Structure formats: structure tokens, C-alpha cells
């Protein structure tokens, strides 16, 4: 039986640990027949070590999404390896410590700017860096944490995710003519490295214990990974500018 990503070439950012959502995206994508290439930050060696746990070997390229030189050479390096791309996964988020954990009213703009640059603007930068490789259309998928609400402790990552969600819609508007779809998975909380760097993350996650219609497992990034793979596949051919919740259904519950 062939997989839903058979023959597709996909660039996956954000593989840092086995707990990374992107690791599960990469694993599932390979299982579903895709050829993948990984990008790494802060060091390729970390990602290379985790990549050994994937079903098949995958090349790793260094990429800091805020580094213009890294972005400028990305298409050449990926092009040499895969010839082109059918999908791009943006699984990147970062905010400085003083932008998280209940310090919202005192965070300096410099820290807000960093959060926005790495977590939101980078969706556009990464996509544009990959655009020369997507001549036959493609699918760009990112990860958000529902920015319709103010959450405990999440602070300036909230506005950064709101910016990411808006960026996704504008990219859908501007890239539709090239048959490039742009969508996000809005995931529930997962105990990854990024999450653990949020002071008071447990308080945020406990909201799911009480309100999620479906049982939510903080230690299971696979459901979010499956959502990403579905959006990379040909099974959402006319869906773009969309945000699909993989959050146990919590977004639908008022109290
Ligand atoms: N963990 C959660 O609870 C949760 C929930 C919803 C959405 N998300 C989102 O999922 C995505 C992946 O996060 P994760 O939970 O797998 O955590 P993670 O820590 O495993 O992944 C975050 C990734 O961002 C990368 N990154 C940070 N700065 C970068 C830069 N300058 N250039 C390139 N890459 C950079 C890191 O290398 C890391 O791989 C993020 O967008 C995150 O906001 C996470």
C-alpha cells in the first residue's frame, strides 16, 4: 500500500528533540513515502543525532530563520539534494524569557521583536526562500497555539502566534495563483523543549485536563504531526489560509 506522501519532497524545520512536533512530522512523512530534508538550529549536530532515530536517513542543513545568508543559500542546497520541493514545514517558535511567564506588561520591545521575527515573520522568510523550488505548487504548513484567546503565562508568544496566523492568511492570498497552499495546525500543549521554556507551562497545560472533550496527552506530539502530514498530502487540495485544530476539541468549549 502506498503512503499519502508518496513521491513528495518535503523540507522539515524544527527537529531538535524526540519531543519536537517536527520529529514526528518527519517520521510520519517518511513512513508515508516522502523524501525529507531537515533544517537545524542552533547546531546541526543536535538535529543529526535525533535524525538517526528516523526510519530512513535524512540530510540536515543549518538554518537560523533570522539569518539572511542561511536563507539565501537554502534553495541551492536543497535543490542539489532533492531537485525541488512539494512541501515545507515551519515548526519554529521562540520568545526571550522576559516575554513569557506573566511579565506581559513589562516586556521590552526588543524581546517582543525577537519573538515576532523568529516565530511569525519567519513563516514568510522561509516560504520565500523555498519558493524557487516549488514551481509545481506545494503545501506550506506551520504550527500555532490558538491565538484567539489570552492564555496564562503565554504572554508575547500570543501576539506572535496571532501574527503567524495572519501571515498564513496573507501568504495563502498571495501564493494561491502558484497553487501553493498555506495552512496551520493549531496544536494543544505538548511537553517539548519550547513548551518547557515557558515558566508556568504546567498551569497552561492543566486547562486541558478540565476542559478538553477528547483526552489530551501532553507527552504525545504524534496527533499534531498527523495533522501536518494530512495538510502536506493531496487530501486537502482546495484548503488554504486555514487553521485546523488538533487540540482535543478544547477550542469549541466555553467553560
Ligand atoms: N509544544 C506546544 O505546546 C505547542 C503547542 C502549539 C504549537 N506549538 C508550536 O509548534 C512549533 C514547534 O515547537 P515544539 O513544541 O515542537 O518545540 P521544539 O522546541 O521542539 O521546537 C521549536 C523549534 O524552533 C526552532 N528554532 C528556534 N529558533 C530558531 C531560529 N532562529 N531558526 C530556526 N529554528 C529555530 C528550534 O530549533 C526548535 O527546533 C512551534 O511553532 C511551537 O510554537 C507548540
Task: Describe the protein.
The protein has 255 residues and is α/β, with parallel strands linked by helices. It has one domain: Rossmann fold, CATH 3.40.50. The chain is 40% helix and 15% strand. The protein has helices at residues 21-31, 44-51, 68-82, 109-130, 157-175, 193-196, 201-211, 222-232; strands at 9-12, 35-40, 59-62, 87-90, 138-144, 180-187, 242-246. A seven-stranded parallel β-sheet has the order 3-2-1-4-5-6-7, sandwiched between helices. β2, α2 and β3 (59-62) form a beta-alpha-beta unit. α1 packs across α8 (222-232), α3 (68-82) runs parallel beside α4 and α4 runs parallel beside α5 (157-175). The chain is globular, with a radius of gyration of 17 Å. The chain starts with 8 loop residues before the first strand and ends in a 9-residue tail after the last strand. The mean pLDDT is 97. It binds nicotinamide-adenine-dinucleotide (NAD). Nicotinamide-adenine-dinucleotide is lined by residues 13-14, 16-17, 20-22, 41, 63-66, 91-94, 118, 143-145, 187, 189-190, 192-195. The site of nicotinamide-adenine-dinucleotide has 27 residues, from α1, β5 and α6.
CATH topology: Rossmann fold
Class from secondary-structure proportions: alpha/beta
Supply the CATH superfamily name.
NAD(P)-binding Rossmann-like Domain
> If helices are DSSP runs of H or I spanning 4 or more residues, what is the number of helices?
8
Report the top-level CATH class: Alpha Beta
Bound molecules: nicotinamide-adenine-dinucleotide
| Low-pLDDT runs | none
Provide the helix percentage: 25-40%
Give the termini separation.
Answer: 43 Å
* Assigned CATH architecture: 3-Layer(aba) Sandwich
Q: How do the strands line up in the largest sheet?
A: 3-2-1-4-5-6-7
Globular, elongated, flat, extended or rod-shaped: what is the shape? globular
Largest sheet: 7 strands, parallel
